[in-house]
Amino acid sequence: MDLADLLEIKEKELRTRKPIRLRCCLAAGCVSSNGQAVKESLDKAVQEAGLADEVEVRQVGCMRLCCEGPLVAVDPAGILYQKVAPEDAASIVAALKGGETQVKRGDLNHPFFTKQMSIVLENSGEIDPERIESYIAADGYQALNDALVEMKPKEVIDAILQSGLRGRGGAGYPTGLKWATVAKMQGSKKYVICNADEGDPGAFMDRSVLESDPHRLLEGMAIAAYAVGADQGFIYVRAEYPLAISRLHTAIKQAKQHGLLGSGVLEAAFTFNVEIRIGAGAFVCGEETALMASIEGERGTPRPRPPFPAERGLYAGPTLINNVETLANVPSIVRKGADWFAGIGTEKSKGTKVFALAGKITNTGLIEVPMGTSLRTIVEEMGAGAPDGNQVKAVQTGGPSGGCLPASQLDTPVDYESLQQLGSIMGSGGMIVMDQTTNMVDVARFFMEFCMDESCGKCTPCRAGTVQLHALLDRILRRQATARDLELLEELCDLVKHTSLCGLGQTAPNPVLSTLRFFRNEYLELLQPEIGAPAAFGTPPKPDVNPTG
Amino acid sequence: MTVPSVPSNHGHVSYAAFSLMETTVTARSEAPPRKPLEHPSGDKRFKILEVFIKRLQHRQDMLIEVLHKAQELFGFLDNDLLIYVAQQLRLPPSRVFGVATFYHYFTLKPKGAHTCVVCMGTACYVKGADRVLAAIEQHAGIKAGETTSDNQLSLLTARCIGACGIAPAVVYDGAVTARQSAEDALERVKGWTNGSR
Amino acid sequence: MPVKTLTIDGKPVSAVEGQTVLEAAQDAGISIPTLCHLDGVSDVGACRLCLVEVAGVSRLLPACVTKVTEEMEVRTESERLKRYRRMILELLFAERNHVCAVCVSNGRCELQNLAVAQGMDHVRFAYRFPPYEVDITHRMFGMDHNRCVLCSRCVRVCWFIEGAATKNVAGRGADARIITDLSQPWGESETCTSCGKCVQACPTGAKFHKGSTVAEMERDRSRLEYIVTAREKKQWIV
């Protein structure tokens, strides 16, 4: 396999394409709304109408507007059918030839679609995720070829540095710097790990990339491996994503068969193998040292850093860990150039960001917008606000490590620094909208319960501190707390934030701190007047405070 | 893949006990191939598990993969099975137990004939997943994480199944189902729990 | 061996490259509170009591795993650190049932001593009163989970000094607990060598010699040191 072969596959794929194409979304959201049956009945309807020569029905990945699924798009007519039922198949096929259909048509001129800018999701909803030819036809693996044939590893790293790409997993560390550190390390065996342990509740960006465009991730990993000098890669993916796992397996098999993974990739002197490791239900394994422990078959407990994974990581070798979205940006940067990428976004946050928009919002689904887009554009224009005439009250980003921003801050641009200044974080991209019916103290307790359940139990502040934070929030919600408890809550937040061993503990208080900052009144309204001695002392816990559930 | 070589000299062991544990324990033993271990129960599934472990070359760092497979075959991990895994991988039982209880995906108790997983991710939560869960709990007379006494229904919660666009989502016997209300959920589980209270 | 000079609480200290801040401080006679640290076994940086401030570093660093560097300025005592240490101790006392008055280690307990030294005289958090049991199935030793602080010292001596790997941490978060083999009664363990190192390593009354009653449990840490020195330096110091 070399460039000529790639181009031949592309050419053949485009040549054999039929004039009319029905794209059926078969990502997890639409699958759970019966999308598979829709595709099958469309197949049948096309056969029955005798249109098999001119119409093809293909499965594709996520088409973004999950709340309206199953989605079916028609090319080249540019129609998007929503909430399609298997019974609708005949009329949709008839409509291709001038017939009538009552199926709801989506408005592709809605800001939900027009304000998007696709890099990571470029092929999502367009290509068949289970066919490598489909990816190659969309110029797939050309970036890997460019890197291997035309660039030295250092030039690849320079391009990533220059592009300004920062880690999309949450913290926003410059990707190029991470690569450069691993590349510098001595060591015969280096590793590239893709962190696909998307654990934030309310986030499904990575899942969509894995389900919709798995080869993009493999290509990004291969480029990263070439740049840092690794020959072995691992994708650590959650067990909760069976469809993503099966598509990744398919993609790896196809890439090997085509000489795009394995030894002598694209006939260059470069070897790269990828294995999948399946998580087993532990949020903390999104933390890089815990993730490595888990790949090694250990309890997923984090360890102190230094040494950082770049120095001493998986199996004690220098290790590069990037998340799915970060790696999915890489092929585009290599193919289109660092300057192109650096021209998108804001001064310090380059490129685009994928968000999973969910909660009390009319349009739920996946969006990819340039960095710097305001929350208002996302929530009010693209998401079309809260449904049923309700008011948007808050927007939560960053999951259990992030914060809740009030409606008054909707003009905040989404970039790493702006969100951090307001006590939230960019996070991996979950964006949950809340309306006036949502109680913010309850939201804080919800996240604290999450952190408490997911704490690995290694360090004291996180293990015992989250339990006490949860108990205090519970007391407040049960109207049994006093101003003294609130004081203790804040003091404990400070402790857990500054003394915990890993990021999970260090960020666990964020949802409490940010709701205290913007919605303090909701806490104060629940407080009781002080009577006598501090009640917290020696009170046996109520059964529901026990974290064993 | 090639098996990573294990450094012979632990220069920085004092950084973390557990990283030392990894480097010493995950070394693939160079022992000669062992005899097939016939499980005394004669249960065929042990044979399948043994072949699986053999394909992984008895690598100790594949413990989690092996536990996944074991649970897939047996439904849950009882002590007998954990001991078998420990023997096959030549790991101390305490390590196998420590790992099996760390990850919530592994269950040490048998599951019911049907499972109902209520997603409690943020999107589902703000859209009322807590009410769905409460309704099922009340109906079946069990708490999340428990199984009815007649072993018909296991009620579980998930930390986000990534189906936020169709929240609140519930997984009935493996099938993700969109936009569930308490009534929808009760309708589904009713047939499974007849007389279970 | 290259020497690093640093200051700890304003006092100039010289240390060997590769030493931790904790070791350098101990050599200089400066005490830093510790709980999960045990001389001779590898550190995990888990209890967070030894956190110190280092000039130019915004995070607090655990002294037990932080290596000395040239011209490092370390502060081991500040109002903030004292407050954090007291609060961590409060969390530990509230977490399980630490009833000193009826504990075998009363008067010789590291947790109790830390509370005294740090001035932690009351607990502001709700006691959780978890229902833990006492395992007295072993013929020589007992394990009282009510007194356990999950420092994992027993696990580490069992794995890395004795090599039996009988003990481990199971479960996670607040449900984490120390187990024997497959969470069996200690007395039924087939891997335990009854060497007693875990009992010597325990900082509280969680592991004890059977037969000891209130305040009677004496430990002799020097026996662990004897073995560690013999292992590492090939010196048998009797």
Task: Please name the defining characteristics of this protein.
heterotrimer; B: 197 residues; alpha+beta; Glutaredoxin; 2 domains; 4-stranded mixed sheet; 8 helices; 4 strands; 41% helix; C: 238 residues; Ubiquitin-like (UB roll); Alpha-Beta Plaits; 5-stranded mixed sheet; 3-stranded antiparallel sheet; 6 helices; globular
Structural write-up:
- The complex is a heterotrimer of chains A (549), B (197) and C (238).
- With 549 residues, chain A is α/β, with parallel strands linked by helices.
- Helices cover 41% and strands 13% of the residues of chain A.
- Chain A has 23 helices and 13 strands.
- In chain A, strand 6 (232-237), helix 12 and strand 7 form a beta-alpha-beta unit.
- In chain A, helix 10 (205-212) packs across helix 11 (214-228), helix 10 packs parallel to helix 12 (242-257) and helix 11 (214-228) packs across helix 14.
- By secondary structure, chain B is of the alpha+beta class.
- In chain B, strand 3 and strand 4 (175-177) form a beta hairpin.
- The radius of gyration of chain B is 21 Å and the shape is elongated.
- In chain C, 25% of the residues lie in helices and 16% in strands.
- Chain C has two domains: 3-77, Roll (Ubiquitin-like (UB roll)), CATH 3.10.20; 83-233, Alpha-Beta Plaits.
- Chain C starts with a strand and ends in a 5-residue tail after the last helix.
- At the A-B interface, helix 2, strand 7, helix 13, strand 9 and strand 13 of A face helix 1, helix 3, helix 5, helix 6 and strand 4 of B.
Order of helices and strands of chain C: EEHEEEHHEEHEEHEH
Number of strands of chain B: 4
Beta-strand content of chain C: 15-25%
Oligomer: heterotrimer
* Main beta-sheet strand count, sense and barrel state of chain C: 5 strands, mixed
What share of the residues of chain C lie within helices? 25-40%
Alpha-beta content class of chain C: alpha+beta
N→C terminal distance of chain C? 28 Å
Radius of gyration of chain C: 19 Å
| Rg of chain B, Å, rounded | 21 Å
Distance between the terminal alpha carbons of chain B, to the nearest Å?
51 Å
Mean pLDDT across every amino acid position of chain C: 95
Largest interface: A-B, 69 and 55 residues
Tally of alpha and pi helices of chain B: 8
Structure summary, number of beta strands of chain C:
10
CATH topology of the largest domain in chain C: Alpha-Beta Plaits
**Low-confidence parts of chain C, pLDDT < 50 over ≥5 residues?**
none
**CATH class category name of the largest domain in chain C:** Alpha Beta
